[in-house]
Amino acid sequence: MTRLERNPPATGCRNAPILKERGQHEVFCGLTGIIWLHRKMQDAFFLVVGSRTCAHLLQSAAGVMIFAEPRFGTAILEETDLAGLADAQEELEREVDRLLARRSDIRQLFLVGSCPSEVIKLDLARAAERLSARHAPHVRVLNYSGSGIETTFTEGEDACLASMVPALPETAERQLLLVGALPDVVEDQALDLLQKLGIENVAVLPARRADKGLAIGPNTVFALTQPFLGGTHAALERRGARHVPAPFPFGEEGTTAWLAAVAREFGVDRARFDAVTSAPRARARRAIRKAAEALHGKSVFFFPDSQLEIPLARFLTRECGMEAIEIGAPYIHKGLVGPDLDLLAPGPTLAEGQDVERQLDRCRAESPDLTVCGLGLANPLEAEGLATKWAIELVFTPVHFYEQAGDLAGLFSRPLRRRTALHLGTGS
């Protein structure tokens, strides 16, 4: 049997002009990533060093867990800390010692910087180094920034994973590393597909537990499952690992292309690839076709928010029959989203960064059928008569790989179906 062949290159948007905007932007901060990361890493704890506002954000976004202690918290910076009247380093280390004495289940502790801790120049890297030495080998203490200053909310996960890479042990084994936090059920589906393809030595970053024996080296190849992991990508390459570029596994086409890139890397032949993927591909196509009936022929406008915008635009235009008017993304990293840009038909405006007032003007002028944006913009746009989709929901919901392809299409069709039902109900 011949090896899986590479598809011929498509004429897409990789070299299309990009409108670069550097004005006011509307996004959540990187602390938001803790909400899904603390669920993924079962023996980790995220200690935000910040203000009461930071604590309120996490509590309101994640909800209150009644039956189990959460794996995140906030070390509150009081007025004396902010004014330099107290030694915030000493107070932080004292609080960490108390936390670890009470919670013996913690194996990884992340000190998460915030806007207040960065403004007063609190050296969390030095604190993490001292605390890690003090509590080794039972607990590894790392730090990263979740500050919302000039960042978008998915960068919290990127900064977290990037902080883990330098501390991973070295390995010479040939292995595949899946990078990006996925819901457990989706991760299990991906691992099952790879195992059926004959790719056995597969690790995941982040691992569910610190004792998984995760290691990295020059024979590690990695495939990203999230398009916002530019810092993690760079950190892995500095350790000698090699990236497998591919479209992201959204929808049937994206999942197949992602798996095909990995399969080529590991010498999987075409017959085996087709035998493993044909049934789930067919299920995904049927599910998308049913869910996307309301999307065909409709227009979509993306505000920059999650960094998922380019792969999602590729999915909506190629698999759901939509027309993309503008695709805004906080950052456009062609080393990551280049394969999706290759598949995206020329035509839409590509915008990097944001000047929110100007983009609102363009959106209103185009009057798209569906607008994908953040929570802060959705309600005002709905009041103006535009149907919207909350971008943040696409990060919290299982949407990757074959079995979730129909659900992904449904997330976009639901606002249009709801609007149609409301209009019919009012007789308008």
UniProtKB/TrEMBL annotation:
Pathway per the UniProt entry: Porphyrin-containing compound metabolism; bacteriochlorophyll biosynthesis (light-independent)
Class of the enzyme per the UniProt entry, highest EC level: oxidoreductase
Residue span, Nitrogenase/oxidoreductase component domain: 29-386
Its organism's taxonomic lineage begins at: Bacteria, Pseudomonadati, Pseudomonadota, Alphaproteobacteria, Rhodobacterales
In its keyword annotation, does this UniProt entry include 4Fe-4S? Answer: yes
Q: Which family does it belong to?
A: Belongs to the BchN/ChlN family.
Q: Which cofactor does it need?
A: [4Fe-4S] cluster
Q: Which organism is it from?
A: Lutimaribacter marinistellae
- Coiled-coil annotation reads 82-109
Gene3D superfamilies with a match to the protein in the record? Nitrogenase molybdenum iron protein domain
**What are the protein's UniProt keywords?**
4Fe-4S, ATP-binding, Bacteriochlorophyll biosynthesis, Chlorophyll biosynthesis, Coiled coil, Iron, Iron-sulfur, Metal-binding, Nucleotide-binding, Oxidoreductase, Photosynthesis
How and how many cofactors are bound, per the record note? Binds 1 [4Fe-4S] cluster per heterodimer. The cluster is bound at the heterodimer interface by residues from both subunits.
Q: How is the subunit organization of this protein annotated in UniProt?
A: Protochlorophyllide reductase is composed of three subunits; BchL, BchN and BchB. Forms a heterotetramer of two BchB and two BchN subunits.
Pfam families assigned to the protein according to its UniProt record, in alphabetical order: Oxidored_nitro (PF00148)
Catalysed reactions, semicolon-separated: chlorophyllide a + oxidized 2[4Fe-4S]-[ferredoxin] + 2 ADP + 2 phosphate = protochlorophyllide a + reduced 2[4Fe-4S]-[ferredoxin] + 2 ATP + 2 H2O
GO terms for molecular function, please?
oxidoreductase activity
- Please identify the protein, giving its name as recorded: Light-independent protochlorophyllide reductase subunit N
